[in-house]
Write a structure and sequence with these properties.
By secondary structure, this protein is mainly alpha-helical. The chain has one domain (6-310). The chain is 71% helix and 0% strand. The model has no long low-confidence stretch (mean pLDDT 92).
């Protein structure tokens, strides 16, 4: 029987998630939640935590009782305090977690037309607000085909209908408002020209770069551990983590090529990396992993404090 270290005791404790939530609320208050009236953004953050908890519970992503998936999400999200004021960012964060929650529920089920429709309805609605989010659509189709195994003609058709629906409704509303100017209905097309396809690393700040590097390191550590020990997980769980790994690689590639889209893509990276590092923290039992855990917590607190000070 593996000896439990401090990291395992914390990861398996029922007090971990409530304490982490209190920590997260404290960071939001220190960042200016009340003074700046970020109530909508904060509500989306709380809803995202609940959705991450459901993601863990419904898919049994950790072999032992653990709330470390949600706790990791809170700790990592709170580092990037410069993202707190963003309404678009709050929508991206909550929408992405909901998309993954619904997507993973479709595992090996070709009769998920309704759920598939909602996956792409949410994604398309977000892209109507933030055009760059349309880049998330191809990876969803890839996951449906390669790891979730829900892709068939019916679900593909449902996904296309889901993608079209928000734009169709938007066009109808614009035509209703401007019946004598039909061209206004296509005004959303011009928004996609806002996407900059050139590489511009000058758009990144030092805190953004440091946070990105931290997420990549955590992904590599957690990903390698998963590859070594994945045979102990159920096939469904392995496929879900494979999906998260593919999303992570895809997002890293986009961030390297299109760093100016950082504020859109970093949410996806945070959401995907959180369960991967939680898997590592919850299921490793060595002295080295225990030391790594304490170093990680120290780095997270230090970076969060630094970003609070800067902001």
């Amino acid at each position: 029987m593996n000896k439990k270290h401090t990291q395992n005791i914390i990861a398996e404790s029922r007090k971990t998630l409530p304490i982490t939530i209190i920590y997260g609320v404290g960071i939001w208050l220190l960042a200016g939640l009340i003074d700046n009236s970020w109530w909508f953004q904060f509500a989306c953050f709380i809803a995202s935590i609940y959705a991450m908890t459901q993601l863990n519970n419904t898919n049994l992503m950790i072999r032992v009782y653990s709330r470390s998936v949600s706790a990791s999400f809170i700790l990592l999200s709170c580092i990037a305090v410069w993202l707190f004021p963003s309404i678009h960012g709050a929508v991206i964060q909550l929408g992405t977690v909901l998309v993954l929650l619904i997507l993973f529920s479709c595992y090996q089920d070709y009769e998920t037309r309704g759920r598939t429709f909602y996956i792409f309805l949410i994604s398309s609605a977000i892209s109507l607000m933030i055009p760059q989010y349309i880049l998330f659509i191809p990876i969803i189709w890839l996951l449906m085909s390669t790891t979730i195994y829900s892709m068939c003609f019916r679900t593909l058709f449902a996904s296309i209908i889901g993608l079209i629906t928000p734009y169709w409704l938007y066009m109808g509303w614009k035509l209703f408002q401007n019946p004598y100017n039909p061209s206004v209905a296509l005004s959303f097309v011009s928004r996609f020209t806002e996407i900059q396809w050139t590489t511009n690393y000058q758009a990144l700040t030092k805190p953004q770069i440091i946070y990105f590097i931290l997420l990549v390191i955590l992904f590599l550590v957690g990903g390698i551990h998963f590859w070594i020990t994945s045979y102990m997980d159920k096939i469904r769980v392995r496929q879900i983590y494979m999906s998260l790994i593919l999303i992570t690689w895809y997002t890293i590639a986009l961030l390297v090529v299109l760093p100016q889209m950082y504020d859109v893509l970093i949410y996806m990276l945070t959401i995907a990396v959180s369960p991967i590092i939680a898997h590592f923290v919850s299921l490793t039992h060595s002295k080295i992993s225990n030391i790594f855990f304490f170093v990680l917590i120290s780095v997270i607190v230090l970076l969060t404090g630094m970003n609070l000070w800067i902001s």
